[in-house]
Amino acid sequence: MEIVEGFGIGVVVILGALLILFVRRALVTRSGGIIRLSVRVSTMLDGRGWSPGFGRFAGDELRWYRMFSFAIRPKRVLSRKGLAVERRRLPEGQERLSMPADWVILRCTSHHAPVEIAMARSTVTGFLSWLEAAPPGAVSPRMASQDWPAA
């Protein structure tokens, strides 16, 4: 009887953990603007260290959440102000086994440290547009200094 009880408790714990993961994902993705995104969290081994997840655009920030995590807060936040794409490349070696074939790896520099992110080729255009866009309400210093004719 103890084996059946132990098995039942194990099943309940696993189902509870899965429920928490789905509720967490629903809370994070409720406002849209979600993309599939992998971030390289470790560079100790060449081609390894990629962690799958999803990114959410929130104003001037790209918030990255790990796919298999119970945390409601993002694991990493990339600010648009200090982020620049240094180069782009296709997956090489071991990376080809850990991500889809149509993904592109972007090496970015930020205020804190360099970061490598991987996303689908079709997503890169939207990411670059977001990165180059001015935040709502902001005026370019070049445009603000010009005298515009009255309408």
Structural overview:
The chain crosses the membrane at residues 6-27. Pfam families: DUF2550. It comes from Micromonospora inaquosa. Keywords: Membrane, Transmembrane, Transmembrane helix. This is DUF2550 domain-containing protein. It is built from four helices and seven strands, in the order αβββββαββαα. A hairpin with a 2-residue loop joins β2 (50-58) and β3. The radius of gyration is 21 Å and the shape is globular. The chain has a seven-stranded antiparallel β-sheet with strand order 4-3-2-1-7-6-5, covered by helices on one side. It has a domain at 33-132: Pleckstrin-homology domain (PH domain)/Phosphotyrosine-binding domain (PTB) (PH-domain like), CATH 2.30.29.30. The protein starts with a helix and ends in a 7-residue tail after the last helix. The protein has 151 residues and is of the alpha+beta class.
Overall outline: globular
CATH architecture of the domain at 33-132: Roll
DSSP helix fraction: 25-40%
Taking all Cα atoms into account, the compactness measure Rg is: 21 Å
Count of strand segments: 7
The CATH topology name of the domain at 33-132 reads PH-domain like
CATH class of the domain at 33-132: Mainly Beta
Q: Which residues sit in consecutive blocks of at least 5 with pLDDT less than 50?
A: 139-151
Calculate the mean pLDDT score and round it: 78
Strand order of the largest sheet: 4-3-2-1-7-6-5
Distance between the termini: 85 Å
**Main sheet record:** 7 strands, antiparallel
Spell out the CATH superfamily of the domain at 33-132: Pleckstrin-homology domain (PH domain)/Phosphotyrosine-binding domain (PTB)
The total of helices stands at 4
Tell me the strand percentage band. Answer: 25-35%
Q: What sequence of helices (H) and strands (E) makes up the elements?
A: HEEEEEHEEHH
Structural class from helices and strands?
alpha+beta
Protein name: DUF2550 domain-containing protein
Pfam family, one: DUF2550
Keywords: Membrane, Transmembrane, Transmembrane helix
InterPro entries: DUF2550 (IPR019675)
